[in-house]
Amino acid sequence: MSQDKILMEKMERLKQYFKELGDVAVAFSGGVDSTFLLKAAYDTLGDHAIAVTAVSLSFPERELNEAKEFCKREQIRQIMYEFKELELPGFRENPKDRCYICKKGILTRILQIAKEHGISYVAEGSNLDDNQDYRPGHRAIAELGIKSPLREAQLTKEEIRLLSRELGLPTWSKPSFACLATRIPYGETITEEKLTMVGQAEQLLLEEGFSQMRVRIHGEIARIEVLPGDLERLLQMELREKITEKMKKMGFRYVTLDLEGYRTGSMNEGLK
Asked: Mean pLDDT, the chain, as a whole number?
């Protein structure tokens, strides 16, 4: 079977899934997966599909602005609410199941918002590839009865990007993003200061043209991950000195480069 036919079948499966739900509130972050999910839901259900977006310290302002712009452009109703993750019991301590604590807090509130607006179901954007990584947040999804339409339709990340491009979505080539709390090693206390430092450091790299990257924080050390093809450019003296100087002003004492380069879930490498 050709790839185009496979994609068409999966897209139809996704639309049918939404039709069976009848209405849905999509947990919308503005990333690749949730943008495609929201678009598919809205195209299928119209105003019976809404977006709900959490505004938090772990969610950079640029991501929030992109999410708002997308909903405005597509004329999709978006509900935003303030989410104070640092007030969740256990979150600051940053245990191995931190994602579970956070995800449960976010989705519990979205369930309440959906109910207040007469929406029966809440959907989130996990895809088939997410099954291969350490994802404690999936436990919260299961416990709360949240729908995962992209996984139900057996859609992979690559397929979501391909379908997003066909739909003309601006996110089809957008770099993968995870909340800023993932930049802090498990067991190291999460603070507003650390989240702010990481967010500012990554914004700096974005402005310097590094699209897919991470800045991990280890105490006073910034560990930069960029794509292997970007390592050489980052090491150029003028740019290296500029980035180092600015990151030290943000609060880092040492600025380092990870020679393995960018990879998802590098903080999970220390887990047994």
From this structure: 94
Residue 49 near residue 38, CB atoms below 8 Å: yes
Mean pLDDT of 114-120: 97
Structure tokens at 153: 């339709």
C-alpha torsion sign, points 119, 91, 152, 62: positive
pTM (global) more than 0.90: yes
Please state, as a whole number, how many other Cβ atoms lie within 10 Å of the Cβ of residue 157: 15
Q: Say what angle helices 3-21 and 32-45 make with each other, to 10 degrees.
A: 60
Q: Which helix (H) or strand (E) holds 25?
A: strand 24-27
Q: Closest Cα to residue 149, out of 158, 141, 161?
A: 141
Task: Single out the residue of 253, 201, 251, 250 nearest to residue 224, CA to CA.
Answer: 201
Around Cβ 53, how many Cβ atoms within 10 Å?
Answer: 23
End-to-end Cα distance, the chain: 39
Residues 18-67 pLDDT 10s: 999 999 999 999 999 999 999 999 999 999 999 999 999 999 999 999 99
